[in-house]
Amino acid sequence: MTTTRQHPYPPPEPPHGHGSDSGQGHGPGAGHEPRVEPGHGSGAGHGHGGGHGHSHNHGPAAPVSKHLRKVIAAVLIPFTAAVVVGLVVLWPGGAPGHQRSGVGFDRQTQQATVAKVVNVSCKSVNASGQAAAGDTSGAAGSSAQQPEKGTCKKATIRVDTGKDKGRTFTEIVQPDQSRQLHEGEKVVAAYEPSAPKDLQYSVTDVNRRLPMALLAGIFALAVVVVGRLRGVMALVALAVSFMVLTFFILPAILQGSDPLLVAVIGSSAIMLLALYMCHGLSARTSVAVLGTLLSLVLIGLLGSEFIGWAALTGNTDDSTGLIHGLYPSIDMSGLLLAGVIIGSLGVLDDVTVTQTSAVWELHEANPSMGWRGLYRAGIRIGRDHIASVVNTLVLAYAGAALPLLLLFSIAQSGVGTVANSELVAEEIVRTLVGSIGLVASVPVTTLLAALVVAADRPGAEPAAGRVPGAAAPVPARSGRGRRRKR
């Protein structure tokens, strides 16, 4: 930076001129430079020698004035209080009970083990009238139509949990089923007490707890190794988010509370806890919180308008149909909007924190830059970021709906017909509303960060006491050795 060479000119304070790192041509690479606290030009500009790192702070400094921090607190404290009140008022006593339907996930299950597997003739199985494994594969129905050919497997399953622990039952697996049972394999067995005794248990799925737990452990280890303390805090924040989702959002919706209100309060709680836990209690984090909040408000308004305008009911598949059947009082369209808000929150956090950090670092690299310059530079970074994020969001939704899109392709339906179907229209509205919120979060957060961080530039103020070179010591701190983030 050209401004780093303006140091040698100030004539005042000759006793301290030799202590300035730039006075000796050390520039940003001087060994004393990292001692200077970023964002506090007055701390290094008292003439006490930049080499001594004289500063008024012992931790990461917040480059905003005390007045601006009070303004931020005046906005966030009432908002936080409102979230806490909402949590207290809407906190559920637990998910309400209901009579089990025995359909899908709404049935009793027990852990079981495949004790023995023997090969049998499919023809003899059909003659004896034994049923195939009901839920081990979606192809069971087609298998039952061709029982005469091939060799089937007769599996003896032992129940490992529940009141019938040690009881065994048999399953017949057709040769063309996608999931085959193997001896010693851990499985999940569904229990239907109203069925005949020989048909009360059936295999519904494979027990995947071990590989899932191992994968979660590898993920946690990678986060901690790379992120260190920040990684640990990120994992804690993730656990807290799941707790809010499990103990507040889901039970409150089942209890009959408005899904949109529950989602807004729950998402706000997750946002506050996650951001401050991961990034610390600072003005920078507070700006990211404000940017995320404004973007969530926009997503909520757009989602509510277009879900109503497009007449989306939110009841489009077996899962939502089962929920509506068990709890008719739940507003399914409100549940759809709640899902849009919660789904957008995670990506919003990433965008707002990145933009805020970018503006903060730009200010530290050149504290003389005004808010307009900071905004223009930050928005250039944001354009690159948002292009990749929007593409990621669209591809994530497309990947989740890939089997559905494949069915439409098989049926040779036109693009207009596919997009007009409610099942696909839901995903389109979800994707586009979330993407609009993401796009809007970039200029909103960048502008907030630029205004806040540029409002306090002590190194450029004449009150510093050195009119000719007042701004000089501050730009000289933008070297390679900078490690401070706030």
Task: Write a structural description.
The protein is an alpha+beta fold and 486 residues long. 53% of the residues lie in helices and 8% in strands. The protein has helices at residues 14-17, 41-44, 66-90, 122-128, 140-144, 209-254, 259-279, 283-309, 318-326, 332-365, 371-400, 402-410, 415-420, 422-454, and strands at residues 108-121, 151-159, 168-173, 186-191, 201-206. It has a five-stranded antiparallel β-sheet.
Q: Which structural class should the secondary elements be placed in?
A: alpha+beta
Q: What are the segments in which pLDDT stays under 50 over at least 5 consecutive residues? A: 1-63, 136-147, 459-486
Distance between the termini: 21 Å
| Total count of strands | 5
Largest sheet: 5 strands, antiparallel
